Amino acid sequence: MEIRIENLTKAYGDFKAIDNMNLTIADGDLVGLLGPSGCGKSTTLFMLAGLNKPTAGRIFFGEHEVTDIAPEDRGIGLVFQNYALYPHMTVEDNIMFPLINRKVPKNEARDRAYEMAKMVQLEGLMKRKPKALSGGQQQRVAIARALVKKPEVLLLDEPLSNLDAKLRVETREEIRRIQQEVKITTIFVTHDQEEAMSISDKIAVMEKGVLQQYEVPQKMYLNPGNLFVATFLGTPQINVFDAEVHDGKIYCAGNMLRSGCMVPDGSYKGGIRPESFNVTLLPSAPDAIRAEASHVRMTGRELQIRFNLGANEFRLLVHSDMQIGVGTPFYLTTREKQILLFGQDGKTVGKF
Amino acid sequence: MNRKAGNVIANILKYGVLIIGALFTLMPFLWMILSAMKTNAEIRAIPPVFFPSKFSLENFTTAWKAAPFGRYLVNTLIVTVFNTIGVLITTILAAFAFARLNFPGKKVLLTLLLATMMIPSEMLLITNFITMTKLKWIDTYQAMIVPWLASVFYIYLLTQFFAQIPDALYLAAKVDKCRDFKYLIKIMIPINKGPITTITILNVISNWNSFVWPLLVTNSREMRVLSYGLVQFQTEEGSAYELIMAASCILVIPIMIMYLFLRKYIIEGVTQSGIKG
Amino acid sequence: MEKKSMKGYLYLAPALIIILIFTIYPLIRAFMLSFMEDYNLVNGSYKGINLENYIDIFQDRHFIKALTNTGIYVVFVVPCSIALSLIIAVLLNSHIRFQGVFQTIFFLPYVTSTIAIGIVWGWIFNSDYGLLNQLLSWFGIKSIPWLTSKQYALPSLIIFSIWKSMAFDILIFLAGLQTISEDLYNAARVDSTPRWRVFWRITVPGIGPMISYAFVMGMINAFKVYNEVYALFRGKNGPAGSANTVVFYIYDKFYNQSKYGEASAAAVILFLIVLGLTIIQRTLTGKKE
């Protein structure tokens, strides 16, 4: 089911929680709605579910407009952050509940519930109450309950935020697997960019009620549309510095980082990711920049090094076999096509 | 060494005070049960004897025959059962409205209702009695049942519990095509079994023990409830205390047994009233 | 939250109808009746709208007696019950064995029919065959005519009422004590605070709201005492009205004497007293929070 959002706005008095959002989600895609807390991503999800009424704009599921349709008639499955399992019912009754409400005969409802339980690997737990399940199992019950009525759209609100780190990785793969198996258009809300990038077909990044960019994860990471998206994606964060362009050359605090750029002269914000430096202990090229490590942190796989160019602080990542300590001088160049330039309005100007 | 001795003395004092207190509390109950098994001669012995010479239930059968306690019991049960069912219906519906639904004037209404808890019920009896007279309900079951079908305290208590159920559950049910009334029946009530049990028990006890109102609105022997029947029995029997004590047992012991099994719910409910006040 | 709709009233209707007819209407009606001179129930007639009923009851020595009795009752029952209950509750809360058993026993009077157990107390107070005089005789005290003399009627009522009201006080004190963090007591112990100071500086302030609540509820209940009197004195208000109470006075006026106006006036006085006490309690606990 294709989902189309047109000029969607949600206002509370003067405050616009969602501001004129336009988005089309292709049939069968798994989409991560990503943004910091308060950015409007949950509001968007709840409007898709029909639990929040938009102030303006329209929502289409396929050919049908659903803007004014009640949640129960939209053909959606919804998984809540805290799962919202009915605590007094067994797993089986929880999964059967949406079917019983839709007047599905009890036997058929039970068969479908068991079928669904098998897919989310809950067989054997059907007679338990939610309290007797682990967080991950509760999550799967919630997904089974959402999917059992064969919805056309699956919506998940922060589905992994209540799980511990290890389970989170397992469960997100599980969600991906189930989604692929059912081939259902799925939207999930998250504030964790790694989570969004790892399983989504596409990511929609939101900030202050405005959709910033909608793109495939890898493309978005490499070609962020603006400074916000660039800084929101990636850990450690992208390095942002004051860049000067003069005669097609990009400078940072007097150090020339790149030449031959077709950009008008002037001041820009520059961005370069920590993994995009080439570091050597001896000068590797005539224009290599000399720097000194001010902090070094060993994380196992890599060394995280901090250094300064003028007033700009940078972080970079190198393989952990490099012998660099605090105060060690080193030489660096930047990898091709890895320097981003942003205009004063934050929009991306180019990649060099 | 000294400290240890001090602790022992403190413990003896502690348990001593508690045991004396417990005996003081239990004494009337023990005296009631023991007296109910004595013979009339033992009752009138000077000085009083503590234990009956033999434990016989004869006084109970005599008392049961001397006055229609069977009828009183049936009346009490009818009033208790119907009133309690009614109270549960009004309480659950009202608590759901206050905890879950949004309607104009909600806050004002809740404040007003809470304010009515300050009204002493004694003040209302006069007019309610007149109303019963005008409705020609005197000496009927409905006179004992209907005026007490709603309790602001229970509504308030249950509203607090209903309000603790997370919104997500309501929204989830909505997506699952479960409308308000069904949500109340299928989700809210089963989840709040505990508080609803508490309200049920408190209401059963207050019905069972109620005295003034049945005294006012019933005249005939056939309509009397147990407490009123007991008072009449005392007047009729005068000083046959062994029978009066046996009759008192009929009123006290059932509630005592219920209390022993369900005290968790009762204590919880009464504590709530104290803490929320 | 949901959009506002009138559906809420549908759910509230059953409760609201009952409350309107049997609480709100009688409340208003009681005020009206209290100003109607010589109201006649049969034909609804009255002589006039005035303060006659109020003047009458305040000139009635039975009403004054009921008020002074209530005053004496409050002075003895409320502090005694609170002090004894506080001791028991603190002991119950001090890691003792059989806490559940003790708690079950202490709360028993609360669920028991006042009428039935009042009749039992009447038997205990019996001057010839009663248990109490027997116990006192061990200490060389001569037989006391508890329920049959003007002098001892009110003390009998007070003893019975303390016994009865301790159940509630112990329960809420214990609940209050259990909300005081164990850390506070441990901290006091580390600072080697003497026990009495722990009691006055940690325990009492910790359950301050409960004590004030018990105090006010005790006072309110004192004004409403009826069943206790009825059971002890076999439907009378003590020898020569020596154990009369406000509510007993109200019921007697309207049920036995059919003086609805005076009964209502007394009920309005009762209402104002209860209202005043409740407001005091609300402001007291309100300040503490």
Explain what you see.
The complex is a heterotrimer of chains A (352), B (277) and C (289). Chain A is α+β, with helices and mostly antiparallel strands and 352 residues long. Chain A folds into two domains: 3-232, P-loop containing nucleotide triphosphate hydrolases (Rossmann fold), CATH 3.40.50.300; 240-351, RNA polymerase II/Efflux pump adaptor protein, barrel-sandwich hybrid domain (OB fold (Dihydrolipoamide Acetyltransferase, E2P), Beta Barrel), CATH 2.40.50. Chain A has helices spanning 41-49, 91-101, 106-119, 135-147, 165-182, 193-199, 217-222, 227-232, and strands at 3-12, 15-25, 30-34, 56-61, 64-65, 76-79, 153-157, 185-190, 202-207, 210-215, 239-246, 249-252, 255-258, 266-272, 277-280, 289-292, 295-298, 302-309, 312-319, 329-334, 340-342, 348-351. In chain A, the strands form five sheets. Chain A has a six-stranded mixed sheet, with helices on both faces. In chain A, strands 13-12-11-14-21-22 form a six-stranded antiparallel sheet. The longest helix of chain B is centred in the last third of the chain and has 36 residues, at 241-276. Chain B is globular, with a radius of gyration of 24 Å. By secondary structure, chain C is mainly alpha-helical. Chain C has a single domain (45-122, 163-288), classed as Orthogonal Bundle (MetI-like fold), CATH 1.10.3720. Chain C is globular, with a radius of gyration of 23 Å. Classes of the chains: A alpha+beta (352), B mainly alpha (277), C mainly alpha (289). Chains B and C meet through helix 1, helix 4, helix 5, helix 6 and helix 11 of B and helix 1, helix 3, helix 4, helix 5 and helix 6 of C.
Which class of the largest domain in chain B in CATH terms?
A: Mainly Alpha
Largest interface: B-C, 89 and 100 residues
Strand order of the largest sheet of chain C: 1-2
Q: What's the tally of helices of chain C?
A: 13
Give the tally of structural domains of chain B.
Answer: 2
Q: In the CATH hierarchy, what is the class of chain C?
A: Mainly Alpha
Report helical residue fraction of chain B.
over 70%
| CATH fold topology of chain C | MetI-like fold
Oligomer: heterotrimer
Biggest beta sheet attributes of chain B: none
Rough outline of chain C: globular
